[in-house]
Amino acid sequence: MKINGVPTRSIWVDEADGWTVHVFDQTKLPWSLETLSLTDEDQVAHAIRSMQVRGAPLIGAVAAYGLALALRRDSSTENLERVAAMLAETRPTAINLRWAIERMVRVLHNQPAELRAEAAYAEALAICDDDVETNRKIGEHGLELLRDIAARKKAEGRGDEPVNVLTHCNAGWIATVDYGTALSPIYQAHDEGMKVHVWVDETRPRNQGAALTAWELGAHGVPHTVVSDNAGGHLMQHEKVDIVIVGTDRVTRRGDVANKIGTYLKALAAKDNGVPFWVALPHSTYDPRVDDGVREIPIEERSAAEVTDLTGKAADGSIVSVRVVAEGSAAANPAFDVTPARLVTGLITERGRCEASEVGLAGLYPDRD
């Protein structure tokens, strides 16, 4: 995507020294666009845990470079396995993290120690390039859905209306290496001249929708409106949502979808109102080792402070945090929920679209166990 007209990825290696890894600090958005310079595996682990970098595909790419940084200092097999295990524990729900680490370890185990660091950087770049192409293709296959809606509206004499998409959390280019998953079809529709409008869920408690999705849609010029998390069902009842497209942190063999907390409720509202509910799924997020998402996917429980406190921009321009929960009240913060496959209209992958089922996924991914 572009920032101030310049094509930009969300992660890159320093051109001057050839090894420092740069990412955007997402905790500073939308107030400022600041860059983190990561120089060792501990900084990478902290960036992932603290959500300075987040988004399932991106944390996989960042973790891959974390291994590369670690191997610059110590390229032994012992260090490779130690750092891989450490990074794998930073976030439990998104499978892309483990997928990227396992891919890196497979490649690097076969390399002589003296060649591992160079090979690690090459493989991390390959993971990033793969993510970009994967998301571009997801956008193409999702774009067809938006074109169909636009064509139907035109045939009904409503061609002046935009295609209204509702999304939840942030599954845009800032959550990936480029393009995004759920937002990729939207960007491609906008770029080809289609009238498209996005309802952006705020996505409590960290407000990734209001802070990140709204920021990047605005930067790209896509019309959008931020709404409270509880507004989606109302909008669907009044026929103001044509399609829901969300991203995912893990999809099971039978098509259950883990995504940011609140996604399940959107799927229930969509089902009740006959609104198509689609999930953008890159291959790195498909986990055929898991069957029942509700019972088997570990759900990350994050700090209660994310619920009890809000951070925002004060009238004087300063960034402040304020408590919004009564003193003495406990708070729980499950970061994800699981939407059963029965509520999912279909999956948009880089290989095409399919139903959210074991048969549908096996048809697109016969090479995955």
TrEMBL record:
GO terms for molecular function: S-methyl-5-thioribose-1-phosphate isomerase activity. It holds the Pfam family IF-2B. It is an enzyme of class 5 (isomerase). Keywords: Amino-acid biosynthesis, Isomerase, Methionine biosynthesis. Pathway: Amino-acid biosynthesis; L-methionine biosynthesis via salvage pathway; L-methionine from S-methyl-5-thio-alpha-D-ribose 1-phosphate: step 1/6. The record marks C169 as: Transition state stabilizer. Substrate binds at R54, G55, A56, R91, Q208, N259, K260. The active site is at D249 (proton donor). It catalyses: 5-(methylsulfanyl)-alpha-D-ribose 1-phosphate = 5-(methylsulfanyl)-D-ribulose 1-phosphate. Its EC number is 5.3.1.23. Gene3D superfamilies: translation initiation factor eif-2b, domain 1, Translation initiation factor eif-2b, domain 2. Catalyzes the interconversion of methylthioribose-1-phosphate (MTR-1-P) into methylthioribulose-1-phosphate (MTRu-1-P). Belongs to the EIF-2B alpha/beta/delta subunits family. MtnA subfamily. This is Methylthioribose-1-phosphate isomerase. It comes from Roseomonas elaeocarpi.
